[in-house]
Every structure is written in C-alpha cells, then in structure tokens.
Amino acid sequence: MTEPHDAAARRAVAPVICYPVDTLPQPNLTLYAAARATAVKVSEVQVEPRGAACFRADAGQFFRISSLGGPQVGDLNLWNAADLSERFYSGKTRALHGTHITRGQRMWSSLPHLRPMATITSDTLEWYGIDGFGGSVHDVIGTRCDPYTGNLLAGGQYHHCCHSNLTRALADETGLPLADAERHVHDVLNVFMCTGFTRDTGQYFMKASPVRPGDYLEFFAEIDLLGGLSACPGGDCSAQHSSDTATCHPLLIEVFAPAPGALDGWSVPALNGYDGTHGRGPAEGSAR
Q1: What angle do CA 283, 113, 227 make, to 5 degrees?
Q2: Which of 206, 185, 86, 82 is nearest to 142 (CA)?
Q3: What count of other Cβ atoms lies within 10 Å of the Cβ of residue 275?
Q4: CA-to-CA dists, residue 64 to 45, 229, 258, angstroms
Q5: What is the pLDDT, as a whole number, of residue 284?
Q6: How far apart are CA 189 and CA 120, in angstroms?
Q7: Which of 36, 57, 134, 257 has its CA 20 to 30 A from that of 220?
Q8: Residue-level pLDDT at 113
Q9: pLDDT tens digits for 170-223?
Q10: Any idea where the domains of the chain sit in the sequence?
Q11: How far apart are CA 247 and CA 228, in angstroms?
Q12: Most distant CA pair in the chain: distance in Å?
C-alpha cells in the first residue's frame, strides 16, 4: 500500500499519556515501612517447581515472594478472599502504571470494584530498569502459559503450565470443582519475568530473568487476599515458555503481620465510587 504524502509527519505526532496519574491516590510508603519493621512472620508456603500453591494474607499484612535455589519466574493471581469475583485486573494496572510494575505501584482489582488490592513495598530487582532491548521485570502484559494455546500451536496435552497449575491450586484451596475454579483464574503479574515487545514486529518477548536466590518482591495487602502463585515450567524463561526440559526451582511465599497499632491511620480502600447507573436512572441502574 502506498504511504500518504504526510506519513512522516503523522508518525512524528507526539504521544499523549492515556491515564495521567497525578490525581491517583498514593500509598503511604513511610507508614508501610514503619509497620513492616514491627512485623513477624505468621505463615509460609513453598511452591514446588512446575506447581502452584495458594496463600492468604489479611488486609494490613505483608507477603513476600522469594527466589529459592536458582532463577525462577512465577505467575501471580490475587482474589478478594471473601469474593472471588473481585480479582486482579492486569489490563487496568498496565494502563495506570505501565507494562512492568515495581515499588510504590499497585495491583488493581477488576470492575466494578477497581481499588488497590496490593501495593509493592520492596523489590530487590528494582535496579534492573529497562534494558537495551526494552525488557524489564515483573510484567503485566503476559497472560500466563496455558494448555489451550499450547494445544493450538503444538498439539498435545500439557498440564503443568501456569493456567492449569493455578486452576488445581485454587480448586484444592476452595473446594470448588475444577471447572468452576478455572473460571476464576485470570491474567497474572509475571513475578521476576523479564519481558518486553520487539520493536520490529511488536511481539511479546522473554529473556533470562535476572533473579537470583534471595531476591524477592514484597507487597502490602490492601484488602483480605487469597493468592495463587505458579512456579512457571519455563524456569527463568531464557529459552522455552512451557516445557519439561527447562530447569525449574521452587518459590517461597511468606506472610508477615505488623504489631498492633502499627497501621494507625490506615484503612482498607473503599470500593470504587462510581454509582453504577451507566447513564440510566437509579431504578434501572445496576445498584451495588
């Protein structure tokens, strides 16, 4: 197709940020740090290679995901512990914060709730930044490896991808039938994964994660959370996305509770303030 005569001028138009965040409520990281200094560990769970596990963190607690043994990425799902329909919304998190998230940024919940679920309070890979390929860590652009895409592209029945791992873990934790649990599994935060988009084709790429044993990503739970974490069968994702040949390692989840009174002045974020009428009267609107 022939380019228009003003193609260069059209390409040169400056971009505009879709969602300016100047008015976005900011977390009180100073308060969180002071509360974290008083916190004691109350639980932990180890996620086995090519497996997944669930954990719970009450509002006001901290949870940490750590690398054990060797470089390993993890796929994280979050739900409201009392209502699985409120879950992590990767697309809106990406729109608000960018393709990758780090300290001071938040995991936001799905519509119509749209409120902070968790705030990143510490990230030992924050130093990585954006590399020369456009890659960075902790992305909210990848969807999770799943058996359906695997079947579409290569055939076969692979059961230890992150989607299936999270489905089994949620079913085991809640007692839901497998098919019902699967409906709640959603797009993830790719913890420790190093990814970006190629500039020539715009394709999603991965490269070896810079994570090493002892690195961690720590969060403050803004609401009562049920979490699910899969230790991806791609290992450090340096070569294959899902396989039984990649070297994989466990991940550790620890939950910490601050001392009583350490969070004075903090409260659980309210549900989004939109009235739910969608331009119709209250009688016709979807009241919440």
Answers
A1: 145
A2: 206
A3: 11
A4: 11, 12, 14
A5: 65
A6: 12
A7: 134
A8: 98
A9: 999 999 999 999 999 999 999 999 999 999 999 999 999 999 999 999 999 999
A10: 45-211+230-257
A11: 21
A12: 68
Token pair listed for 73: 């990425």
Q: Tokens 């100073």 appear where?
A: 30
- Band of the pLDDT at 110, cuts 50, 70, 90? very high
**By C-alpha distance, which of 260, 217, 267, 264 is closest to 59?**
267
**Nearest 5°: phi and psi at 228?**
-135, 135
Task: Sort 22 into a burial class: Cβ within 10 Å, 0-12 / 13-18 / 19+.
Answer: exposed
Q: Which residues pair with 116 in a beta bridge?
A: 108
| Token reading at 102 | 């780090």
Q: Which two tokens stand for residue 181?
A: 């649990």
230: which strand partners? 52, 75
Residue 54 and residue 228 in contact, taking contact as beta carbons nearer than 8 Å: yes
Helical axes 147-154 vs 162-174, angle rounded to 10°: 150
Report the C-alpha gap between 39 and 254 in whole angstroms: 12
CA-CA-CA-CA torsion for 143, 147, 150, 154, nearest 10 degrees? 180
Predicted TM-score of the model (pTM) = 0.95
Banded pLDDT at 243 (limits 50, 70, 90): confident
Intra-chain end-to-end CA distance of the chain, in Å: 50
